[in-house]
Structures are given as structure tokens and as C-alpha cells.
Design brief:
The protein is built from 2 helices and 8 strands. It has 211 residues and is mainly beta. It has an 8-stranded parallel beta sheet, with no helix packed on it. The relative contact order is 0.10. This is Pentapeptide repeat-containing protein.
Length: 211
Amino acid sequence: MKMNTPKIPTQLIMRNFSDILDEEYPELELCEIIDNSFMNEEVDRVRLDQIVLKNCQFNYTNFSNIQLTDVRFENCDLSNVNFSKSSVHRVEFSNCKLLGSQFPSSSLGNVRFDHCSLHLATFDSAKLEKVQFNETVLTNSDFYECKFKGIELNRCNLNDANFEQTSLKGIDISSSTFETLTISIDSLNGCKVSSSQAIQLVSLMGVIVVD
């Protein structure tokens, strides 16, 4: 799948994330932010455009209605961050911790999660188009009633993930692992799985498989 990567200039100025607290319309653009801590804050309708964030902590911060465009997060802790009703486009998360992060009713396009932890993350009622999850932990994550288009799940841990009311048609999960999923037969229509996964899924639906 061809994806659009973040469009970020090579020359960026250094900024602190706390600078947005002094702005009437909180926004940061064309900058690099390193080793910042911005935890337990609440800032509505932040706009981040063409920036790189490295080794930053945002635990328990409310970023509802945030707009992220052309952004790269590297080695950041975004655990329990509220991204509800957000717009996330051309964004990369690399080696990030997103334990319990919340993306309900959000729009994600051309987004990549590489080697991240999204344990207990919620995406219910979100729209995901051209989103890659690469070697990412998605245990107990919630994708209830999502709209998927062009989704890749490459070597992910999907154990106990919830895909109720979300179609996996055309999505290949054969390289990923799970012991159990919350999913309906309708959601699995057209999903690509390995032979061993097919046996697991049949067993989860109450069918007894005999040799």
C-alpha cells in the first residue's frame, strides 16, 4: 500500500510544548520538540503542523479535537491521552507508548504505528484510511463500529481486540497473533487469515473442529 509520509522540512526551530499555553489559538508548526513533559494538561483544539517530537511525555493529557498534520512522534509516551474527535493525517508514531490512548470518533489517514504499544487503546466509531500497524501491540484494543479502508496489520499482537460491527473485508491479519478476538462472522467476511487462525476463529465461534 502506497502511503503519504509526513512532509517535514529538514530545518526546524526548537520549541517547548508548553509554549502553546500562552496562545489564544494553541498551535505549533515547523519545529522540533525534544525531552518535553506535558502531562495531565487539558488543551482543546490544538493544531500541530510539520513538527517532530522526540522523547516527550504526554500522559493523561486531554487533546480532544486536536489536528495533527505532517507530524512524527519518536519514543514518546502518550499513555491515556485523549485524542477523541481528532484529525490525524500524515502522522508517524515510532517506538511510542499509547497505553489506553483514546481515538473515538476520529479521522486517521496515512498514519503509521511502528513498534508501538496500543494496549487498551480505543478507536470506536473512528474512520481509518491508509493506516499501518507494524509490529505493534494491540491487545485489548477496541475497534468497535469503525470504518476501515486500506488497513495493514503486520506482525501485530491482536489478542482480545474488539472488532464488533467493523468489517475486515480485504484486510490481511495472517502475520499477526491472537488467542481470542471479539468479532462476528459478518465482520470476518473477506478477511485474509492463515490456516491456523481459521481454526482458532472457528473454535471461538463455538464450532468443534475434529481431525
